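Quick one: structure for this chain?
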Amino acid sequence: MKTATFLQRALLSAAICVGVASGGSAAAAEKLKLVFPTSSATLALPYLVAQKKGWLDAEAIQVSGDSNAVRALLAGTGDVAIVGAFNAFAAAGEGAKFKAIGTWQGINDYELVVSSDINTMKDVEGKIFAGTGPGGPPEEFGKLLFRKNGVDVSKVRFIAVSGGHANIVQALMAGRASAGMVNTLSAVTGVRTGKIKILVSMGSAYPQIGYVYNLVRNDRIDDPALKPKLQQLTLAGIKASRYIMDHPDEAVQILVERYPDLDKGLATDVVQELNRNKVWGVNGGISKEQVAATLDIFKSTGMLKADVDPAQLFDYRFIDAALKEVGGK
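Got it. Here's what it folds into:
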């Protein structure tokens, strides 16, 4: 059976999503609806800060994965979908009609975590690397780091671990693997056990690789009722990103208020690591230089097969207007 493309998967249940979107009250419809592809606390942090500070009035809709986020956007369930950079390019390459207008997390926050006996990249040769399978960001970004640092990738055994990044960390802690690539929250959670450590941060090694983009349908981006809300979202994202950098303790407090089961010490360590890697979109998160570099890396590694014209995918009007108000940083 032929494997479905990313866009085909996103469109698979569009009719169902339209039915869901048509319900609800008129009052709820007035709020900007943001579709999140994950329950990740760190990805939601700028949103939580913006809401807490009164900079944004929006409703969050959580789905599972980028394909479902794109599906919700195309079906009209959400006004804006937060989608991983690679999958945004992939869907655009397959003909999806949307624009990226900015992001509050412009830089990849993946971390290469290793067992305590590994001290250099070369030490990974002859070991097992846990990811999510070929083509998945953990494995492909791991290979990217290895090649950059002279590691013979053919000497690394790659295994796929299901169940998300937390299970990759568990694989290392259980001795099933010696290295893996996970998000910052999962990495710091593992580091705090004393059984694994962070060897390299993708944000420091490849600060030009984008992480997520805020996507809006082409046929709605100039809707008079929606356009002011998109401007508010973009400005709020910039202000929240700067606030997290300038007031990390307050940002942590906002995070644990929303996620009371999250240990405050862990949250503090995670925010410090994210700030150290400067992942936040303090100037809108999608500079033309970064977009070009991200696309080049995805193409050169073979992760992205389709040709994508950034000029057709990215719309900088909202960022430009926001920076006129608050200035660049």
